[in-house]
Amino acid sequence: MTLFFYIIIGLITFVAFLHAWAKKEYNFSRTVVINRPKAEVYAFIRQLKKQPLWMPWFLNDPGVVLKFKGEDGKVGASAYWKGSNNVEGIEKIVKVKEGKVFETQLLFIKPYKSLSLCYMAVKEVEPNRTKMVWGVKGVHKFPASVLMLFYGMDRALGKDFETGLYNLKIHLERK
Questions:
Q1: pTM for this structure?
Q2: Per-residue model confidence as pLDDT tens digits over 91-104
């Protein structure tokens, strides 16, 4: 019984140490160059109703339920989703810098509560070429802080962001 108690205390101490040592803040992004004018790319990405056309999570879940509120593309507009694989959340537009930056607050309700800030920024590379950055930043809470020591945001989201940006590029360049 005493050995078991010491093992449990040791594990709790180790996990607490990992949490204290772990980097809590994250800022993860991916970039793509789209062969379309900056104004056209920005006008498309700022619309929450267009996200199901290119974001992989929506494309991979045909049973997702989406509900929109407010004037799309404007501060205060929001999208609610409930996926068939036990995911649920709300995305709300919190900042719009016309033609430059678009930010949303991303609240996951299920499978676990999480709050992040998503951002999309566009910059003209050439008259018909636009560099777009898609990112997410926030703070890991326990136990995510410990899990991300071993898993990492790049491993968790990298492939999805790359797929989404590829989908967006293909969609916009077909026009």
A1: 0.81
A2: 999 999 998 999 99
